[in-house]
Amino acid sequence: MTCAEFLAHPPDFDWVRLEECAAVSSNIGIETFQPDNAPKGLSGNADAVYIPLGVAGEHTGDERARLLLRVDHGPMLRLGARFASDKDADAAEDALAGPLEGLVERKLDRSERDREKLRGLGLFLADDFVVIDYGARPRPLWLALGSLGIGLGAFALLVRKWRRRRRPVELAKAKLVSG
């Protein structure tokens, strides 16, 4: 699906593959992790980079971003580093030029606090923005069923152990032997 089709009629799919997308502006949002014991004023490492996307060749720069690409790995994440090189920028452009695959996060998937954090990154977001988590895939069904099976097995073992502790111990009865 193209970026234009996605923006015109967002599908209900959880995973999409978008083509013909381009960065809408040179502004990117950088999500950083800063430990509680770090000195104030020092920024931590970039955990994720948010890149506003639009239709290739149609961005005017004055409209709000309705589509964000969240990247937490690869060459596009290095754009969030303090000392990103031209080589990193070229690698990120090459990655953006190809198809972009990822999970779709809609407005309801995020808490209000998380949405406010994104708005605080200075990306000029629309009210109904959508985030594509780059490279993320839905978890397979076998993984969920396996986790459920392991959880039920562990619960059964705990119940069995608890029952053994709760059962009264029967003492052996003495027999009178005449001799």
Proportion in β-strands: 25-35%
Secondary-structure element order, as H and E? HEEEEEHEHEH
Number of strand elements? 7
Q: How many domain regions?
A: 2
Could you say which structural class the secondary elements and strand pairing correspond to?
A: alpha+beta
Return Rg in Å: 27 Å
Oligomerization state: single chain
Sheet with most strands: 7 strands, mixed
Number of helices: 4
Q: In brief, what are we looking at here?
A:
With about 180 residues, the chain is an alpha+beta fold.
Verbal overview:
With 179 residues, this protein is α+β, with helices and mostly antiparallel strands. The chain folds into two domains: 3-134, no CATH class; 141-169. It is built from four helices and seven strands. Strands 1, 2, 3, 4, 5, 6 and 7 form a seven-stranded mixed beta sheet that branches. The longest helix is centred in the C-terminal third of the chain and has 26 residues, at 141-166. The mean pLDDT is 77.
